[in-house]
Amino acid sequence: xxxxxxxRTQLGALLKAGEQGAETYTTINPWNSRQTFAxxxxxxxxxxxxxxxxxxxxxxxxxxxxFAFRRLPDAVERATRTRARYPDAPLGGPxxxxxxxxxxxxxxxxxQEVELLHARIxxxxxxxxxxxxxxxxxxxxxLGVLLALAVNGALDPVPLAVAGGISVAWWxxxxxxxxxxxxxxxxxSTMLEQAGIEWPPGNTPG
Length: 206
Prior knowledge:
By secondary structure, this protein is mainly alpha-helical.
């Protein structure tokens, strides 16, 4: 999915939240790319809302994690300034910090900030979200296999042994996935530490 079609909806909702004075704006990532979502987080900051991590109100075991953006003290000034410079941004015009006609590709002056936002997002997904979602999957799939056997009246030793084998293989897969995510989390955390950014922040977003 490209950046611009969803940008209309995303920026429209964010600007409406800003007009209402909402302290927190929440959304899922509507794109397959976390890099594109990082570009949107950069845009949101130009309009007065800074990426604040995963939303505690929506839990961490959802299939689509919910992310929070906090309203900045100078949100009105930021939004006014950005609207004046990019009046057609939500309608397909030039976007703050992004290369014209290249989707979510940042301009050189915005590239570092977009990369650091991308690192924050990855740390969040590899951290709390990873633990919550993997725990849910570790229970849901074996339970689903067992229920399928029960419904079909196949609770005999052989089917149960096969189900056990499937469960063990699934747990091994989740363990490997968790290890890879943990490695990625360390890599992105190191990137943020080198940039002098403490993440996740001390205050949990709503």
